[in-house]
Amino acid sequence: MKASTMKKKLVLSLLLMLLLPLLASCVERQVYIVYFGEHRGKKTFNEIEETHHSYLFSVKESEEEAKSSLLYSYKNSINGFAAVLTRHEASKLSELEEVVSVFRSKPGKYSLQTTRSWEFVGLEEGEKSKKLKKDDFWFKARYGKEVIVGLLDSGVWPESKSFSDEGMGPIPKSWRGICQNGDAFNSSNCNRKLIGARYYLKGYEQYYGPLNTSLDYKSPRDMDGHGTHTSSTVGGRTVPNASALGGFARGTASGGAPLAHLAMYKVCWAIPGQGKEDGNTCFAEDMLAAIDDAIGDGVHVISISIGTSQPTPYPKDGIAIGALHAIRNNIVVACSAGNSGPAPSTLSNPAPWIITVGASSVDRAFFAPLVLGNGMKIEGQTVTPYELKKKMYPLVYAAHVVAPKVPKNYIAGQCLPGSLSPKKARGKIVFCMRGNGTRVGKGEEVKRAGGVGFILGNSPDNGAELAADAHVLPATAVNSDNAIKILKYINFTKEPMAYIVPARTVLHSKPAPFMAAFTSKGPNTITPDILKPDITAPGLNILAAWSEASSPTKLASDHRVVKYNILSGTSMSCPHVAAAAALLKAIHPTWSSAAIRSALITSAGLKNNMGMPITDASGNPANPFQYGSGHFRPTKAADPGLVYDASYTDYLLLLCSSGLPNFDPSFKCPKLSPTTTTNNLNYPSLAISKLNGTVTVERTVTNVGDGKSVYFSSVKPPLGFSIKVSPPILFFSHMGEKKSFTITVKAESDGVGTVGKNGYRFGWFTWTDGVHIVRSPMAVSLA
Ligand SMILES: *[C@@H]1O[C@H](CO)[C@@H](O)[C@H](O)[C@H]1NC(C)=O
Ligand SMILES: *[C@@H]1O[C@H](CO)[C@@H](O)[C@H](O)[C@H]1NC(C)=O
Ligand SMILES: *[C@@H]1O[C@H](CO)[C@@H](O)[C@H](O)[C@H]1NC(C)=O
Ligand SMILES: *[C@@H]1O[C@H](CO)[C@@H](O)[C@H](O)[C@H]1NC(C)=O
Ligand SMILES: *[C@@H]1O[C@H](CO)[C@@H](O)[C@H](O)[C@H]1NC(C)=O
Ligand SMILES: *[C@@H]1O[C@H](CO)[C@@H](O)[C@H](O)[C@H]1NC(C)=O
């Protein structure tokens, strides 16, 4: 072959290699969501579906093809559909004026937000619920009676005692939902507690093919455990003497709103070919269908412990779109902030109409100290029920006992699957570092290699946060300082030895709360002028009900069955706040979702149980990019004094000024003056990104306390900035009265020197009448 022909051939094949994937992606049929905003005018469901069909027919070859490509036609509030389209068809539809956005549904984009670790336990909430019962607030809120909370999750285990309807009030007359039949589930599984249950699978099956029913139930029934956990956290009944394997934390189990009604919308499913401990997937088109139904069914609060690992612009974020429609229907929406911390800018669900919830610890620990051969005692935590015989065992670092052939990308010392040599690990306690892989999976690997026990060491990123896991062998987990101590001991000792003391439950541990290292952090990269997260709530080692079709670790090799289990994640903190919102809704049925959110935000606490500022997992002071306005205090939120209200239109105006496409094509953005900024959404906190000189923003507060009152402002300015609140005093003569004020933020002359470029500084502004403290966090950065 001549060199020139060879060259030509090479060029041709190179071209083909480059073009083929391009061509393939043009023809490749994917699920797209085509979103039109709100439904306008009165239309029947048939008329809506017909309209959606006609859009599809306009880009498809035939009527049949148009019909068969449609997965969902959203009809209650969301105007849009999900369909199988080529990229070309999708782009044609996106050119239509009435279309707000067209976006591809990406598999694996959304998942439930636990930190891939769990275990079982009896009950942590015992103490709390005793206190709550006496509490006037829960009484006033009638424990959430008549409020309906919908959850998007992995399903529910209806037989759990947490979902008993004994003594519950009747199903509210306003309820229009259903109890959908399916595998091992029918309407008999619903009752006056669990009043609705549906499942959404079309997007999942379009991508993965028919559901493998040994992985999950084709019904609202939960084969994972997560949905059972979150829904019992919101509204589980008071269950005395609940406990689990090992009897950890025996006590009374109770959800935050034990008399609220629950509705499960199952949208998250097992991923074929992947262990359940490694996660699950939830498709945007399935979630939109669920939210649209929840709106039509008549829920009052929606709790969504689902998110992305990356921030997503709102017009392409199924949860943000669905939540805006929920807000328009006066439904409160709480979402998890994500578990991608401690890196900054890692938030999911930062939309201004959502309550974005971070995660922090509770004051309960499971002490299982480690004793080293030199007599040193090291703190550790676990909830494994397995115990060592009381004697010292040889201790090794995983990196020193690796198998001969380990995949190159395996990081030494992390006990990834297949990495340990049984020859070297047998009979020993193995020390493993956190990093890649699941925590329980590391224990499984040590057990496989014949280790008798294992120690899980935190990396510096994990700090002092210890997630208590139900490991499959004797184990304990240690913080990063102690991990280094243990490594030193191993490195500098001839025959290192250790013993793990069996775990016991300890209450009133200090400090609590502290921020979980995994909780996702601000700033909000989608709308930087909205401070997120909003608030923090318990999300570390939370005990709640569990599916009996799953094991406490979710490992396939683990066959234990438990009724209650401990999980960690913003998935666990979100339902706490959803429960608080349900209680507030019961006390103040006429309040808007923005008013409820404002009450929660401005009443949050900043101190731990040692009377000191809340810290991060390493003991450093935490800031509003971790906890928003602080730790939620539902009792205080019931009587906030003032609220920052906002309407659906206010959110549309925010979208106008943020330059994002508007969600409602019928809404015409007003002409924006150059001074219009996204800061002016009447939000109960304030973020100013890239301040150049001075900015003045306006806020309006509504008096929700009794009648006559005088509120004084006070300010703790961010370092390097001056803050002026005007007027500094607000006089109210009656309940419901609104007063506006401005906040002027000015960079001080040496501001750049103090703050630096891109750095954020935090401060607070507060209104108080001597009884109520209405506190708002602020975050400011310089241009
Ligand atoms: C639901 O399923 C159970 C168990 O299979 C059955 O006994 C019951 O009759 C069913 N109920 C309805 C309403 O179909
Ligand atoms: C379904 O899942 C089970 C368990 O993972 C697996 O053994 C089986 O091969 C799967 N079936 C199909 C048809 O993929
Ligand atoms: C609680 O349950 C355990 C068994 O799970 C039982 O031994 C104990 O007596 C129970 N305690 C009460 C107060 O009912
Ligand atoms: C996890 O593994 C990837 C690649 O295998 C590596 O780049 C990354 O640093 C690892 N992360 C940790 C925390 O060890
Ligand atoms: C102990 O030795 C391992 C390598 O075997 C090394 O990675 C680690 O940094 C050492 N640690 C200390 C504290 O000496
Ligand atoms: C700040 O504002 C001044 C005056 O309006 C302008 O000249 C300057 O370019 C701005 N700087 C930045 C970084 O935007």
Short descriptors:
7-stranded parallel beta sheet; alpha/beta; Subtilisin-like_FN3; 783 residues; 7-stranded mixed beta sheet; Rossmann fold; PA_domain; 24% helix; serine-type endopeptidase activity; globular; S8pro/Inhibitor_I9; binds 2-acetamido-2-deoxy-beta-D-glucopyranose; protease; Glucose Oxidase, domain 1; Alpha-Beta Plaits; 19 helices
Fold and architecture overview:
- By secondary structure, the chain is of the alpha/beta class.
- The chain has 4 domains: 30-104, Peptidase S8 propeptide/proteinase inhibitor I9 (Alpha-Beta Plaits), CATH 3.30.70.80; 117-127 and 134-363 and 514-635, Rossmann fold; 365-504, 3-Layer(bba) Sandwich (Glucose Oxidase, domain 1); 641-646 and 681-782, Immunoglobulin-like, CATH 2.60.40.2310.
- It contains 19 helices and 38 strands.
- Strands 8-11-7-14-16-17-27 form a 7-stranded parallel sheet, sandwiched between helices.
- A hairpin with a 4-residue loop joins strand 19 (370-372) and strand 20 (377-378).
- Helix 8 packs parallel to helix 14.
- It starts with a helix and ends with a strand.
- The protein binds 2-acetamido-2-deoxy-beta-D-glucopyranose (6 copies).
